[in-house]
């Protein structure tokens, strides 16, 4: 059995001071770095995902509904798209970053790809090439991109664990609903550690 850690979207715009901030985002970045520094030996691979928008159409709106449309965020070429500096300890162990959403909304890290020797490889294929059968998922935000990534991991047949203390959600109600949905899909939800 081989396990990977997927660190979802710990970018400036999703943390305090960003354009679409999640309360507790900076603290989550710190905790993820601590977790990876302490436990990287238990993972065959550590990967990151990043919301990476060029022109995502109506995913961005000047009058966002915060369900299907959002303020401008994670625009390529801006500070907002970068990983938080507090994530640096984790990034030392990150082997690949899967970027998603260039020209569309993309919540799941499994919609992302990374360049390997001149070709774009999706997250599922990348994990499969490394015989990964289990994943731990953490990051931002529990009720959106973390949720979508964990659900897709289950659809890919991966044993999936959500490290709850290493996540933060946008809103309490949608976070509770997301946790229920993940549990029902077979995601194991545990505190980190
Ligand atoms: Zn986005």
Automatic annotation (TrEMBL):
<comment type="pathway">
    <text>Cofactor biosynthesis; nicotinate biosynthesis; nicotinate from nicotinamide: step 1/1.</text>
</comment>
<feature type="domain" description="Isochorismatase-like">
    <location>
        <begin position="4"/>
        <end position="190"/>
    </location>
</feature>
<comment type="similarity">
    <text>Belongs to the isochorismatase family.</text>
</comment>
<dbReference type="GO" id="GO:0019363">
    <property type="term" value="P:pyridine nucleotide biosynthetic process"/>
</dbReference>
<dbReference type="GO" id="GO:0046872">
    <property type="term" value="F:metal ion binding"/>
</dbReference>
<keyword id="KW-0479">Metal-binding</keyword>
<protein>
    <recommendedName>
        <fullName>nicotinamidase</fullName>
        <ecNumber>3.5.1.19</ecNumber>
    </recommendedName>
</protein>
<dbReference type="InterPro" id="IPR052347">
    <property type="entry name" value="Isochorismatase_Nicotinamidase"/>
</dbReference>
<dbReference type="InterPro" id="IPR036380">
    <property type="entry name" value="Isochorismatase-like_sf"/>
</dbReference>
<dbReference type="GO" id="GO:0008936">
    <property type="term" value="F:nicotinamidase activity"/>
</dbReference>
<keyword id="KW-0378">Hydrolase</keyword>
<dbReference type="InterPro" id="IPR000868">
    <property type="entry name" value="Isochorismatase-like_dom"/>
</dbReference>
<dbReference type="Pfam" id="PF00857">
    <property type="entry name" value="Isochorismatase"/>
</dbReference>
<keyword id="KW-0662">Pyridine nucleotide biosynthesis</keyword>
């Amino acid at each position: 059995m081989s396990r990977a850690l997927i660190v979802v979207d710990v970018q400036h715009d999703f943390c305090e001071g960003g354009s679409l901030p999640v309360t507790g985002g900076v603290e989550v970045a710190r905790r993820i770095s601590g977790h990876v520094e302490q436990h990287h030996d238990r993972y065959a691979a550590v990967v990151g995902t990043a919301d990476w928008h060029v022109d995502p159409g109506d995913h961005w709106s000047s009058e966002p509904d915060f369900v299907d449309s959002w303020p401008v965020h994670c625009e390529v070429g801006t500070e907002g798209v970068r990983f938080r500096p507090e994530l640096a300890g984790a990034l030392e162990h990150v082997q690949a970053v899967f970027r998603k959403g260039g020209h569309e909304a993309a919540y799941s890290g499994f919609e992302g790809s990374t360049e390997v020797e001149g070709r774009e490889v999706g997250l599922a294929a990348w994990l499969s090439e490394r015989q990964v059968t289990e994943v731990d998922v953490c990051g931002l935000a529990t009720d959106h991109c973390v949720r979508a990534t964990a659900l897709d991991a289950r659809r890919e047949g991966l044993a999936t664990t959500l490290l709850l203390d290493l996540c933060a959600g946008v809103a309490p109600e949608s976070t509770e609903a997301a946790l229920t949905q993940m549990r029902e899909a077979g995601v194991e939800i545990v505190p980190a550690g």
